[in-house]
Amino acid sequence: MKIAILGGGESGVGTALLAKQKGYEVFLSDFGLIKEKYKKVLEENAVEWEEGTHTEERILAADIVMKSPGIPDKVTIVKAIKEKGIPVVSEIEFAYAYAQNISIGITGSNGKTTTTLLTHHVLKEAGLNIGVAGNIGDSFAEQIAVAPDKIYVLELSSFQLDGIETYKPHIAVITNLSPDHLDRYDYKYENYIEAKFRITKNQTEEDFLIYDDDDEEIKKWLSTHKVKAQLVPFSLTKKLNQGAYLEDNNIRSMINDEKVIIPIKEIAIEGKHNVKNAMAATLVAQMMKVRKQTIRESLSNFQGAEHRLEKVAKINKVQYINDSKATNVNATYFALESMNVPTVWIVGGVDKGNDYDELMAFVHEKVKAIICLGIDNEKIKKAFSNVVDIMIETTSMNEAVKIASKIAEEGEAVLLSPACASFDLFTSYEDRGHQFKEAVNNI
């Protein structure tokens, strides 16, 4: 069997290693440049590769193609592969065939990284043989090559779910839905929603779908589609007989008459959205038969995800918070909602068709100054110039943090929560977050 792999990043190289182990003839092709660390791995494992081009003849000779999630279907080579009838799969789909244990799949527009890491943390603290992969950490395929018997908690993007045919999580979680990546879905929100719900398409009556019962789009979809999995909701606003809900500042989580009660003041990560993330993780843990005490202790000692409402430092009694992973308005909504002191807000980058209206109430109430960090800040200026007194444009992280440190006073906060992609000034949201932390530490 011949496999062609498009993309020489984490998922592509991981797939190459697993495919090689399983006896495939492997050819990896990247239209861009492959990082040196990945080239080294490919060379060490005798994997044929190319960069800067796609040799169509070699790729179209494959029996199966693994397409990295960042490559759109409209790319010429992908169209040619599909026209020839060659199956195109994601790394998740390819690796799943060799997994020997169940997986837990977590998706959503926001909160999926935190929920994935939190779920992994709780299950690991319980002593389960557990791994974490997907849109986070080392690739699923590479880890399956080394430890196929582990239970994996997978963070799954819509792009990864687009490429599944047989993948089936025993427990699926949808944290929430809001418009994102619409450029990949013909600018149709319903197409993006369908992609997210692919997480449950292969589930059976023995499987579970955990979801946010306060999310209108999730409820709407579930009301018009048949799902085989057992539905397990969580909510901040209503009492539930089965699932998790909030009452008297306690999470009450009920699965098959087994109740867990967790005071929200004991949860290490703050904000209403993190109460929901904790609910989802608690429900998974209950299904995996984790002891109540272990669940409570794990939620109280969890460190949180880097670049997601990460407290960097307190300098001159000003708290600096790195929320660089907030690449859309909905993520920034959660960040501003969780702020309880006057805030200097650093915002901006590559706008993905943002509508800033839903942030207005929080900006009125909590934001004392806005620092625009991007090449084109016109939309942000137009949205908020009449709402805040201080608005300053910057084009470097050092400058933004220096100005913020002069504006913020004792007892206030500086929040980097861009609501935009990072590619105008940074290589990734991680790069943006690291630069923020470095600039803060240099104050």
UniProtKB/TrEMBL annotation:
UniProt keyword Cell division present: yes
Domain Mur ligase C-terminal, first and last residues per copy: 307-420
Pathway listed: Cell wall biogenesis; peptidoglycan biosynthesis
Amino acids binding ATP: G108, S109, N110, G111, K112, T113, T114
Major localisation: cytoplasm
HAMAP family registered for this protein in UniProt: MurD (MF_00639)
Domain Mur ligase central: 106-285
Family: Belongs to the MurCDEF family.
GO molecular function, one term: UDP-N-acetylmuramoylalanine-D-glutamate ligase activity
Keywords from the named record: ATP-binding, Cell cycle, Cell division, Cell shape, Cell wall biogenesis/degradation, Cytoplasm, Ligase, Nucleotide-binding, Peptidoglycan synthesis
Domain of life: Bacteria
SUPFAM superfamilies per the UniProt record, alphabetical: MurCD N-terminal domain, MurD-like peptide ligases, catalytic domain, MurD-like peptide ligases, peptide-binding domain
InterPro entries for the chain: Mur-like_cat_sf, Mur_ligase_C, Mur_ligase_C_dom_sf, Mur_ligase_cen, MurD
Catalytic activity: UDP-N-acetyl-alpha-D-muramoyl-L-alanine + D-glutamate + ATP = UDP-N-acetyl-alpha-D-muramoyl-L-alanyl-D-glutamate + ADP + phosphate + H(+)
Protein localization: Cytoplasm
Protein name: UDP-N-acetylmuramoylalanine--D-glutamate ligase
EC number per UniProt: 6.3.2.9
Free-text function comment from the UniProt entry: Cell wall formation. Catalyzes the addition of glutamate to the nucleotide precursor UDP-N-acetylmuramoyl-L-alanine (UMA).
Organism of origin: Paenimyroides ceti
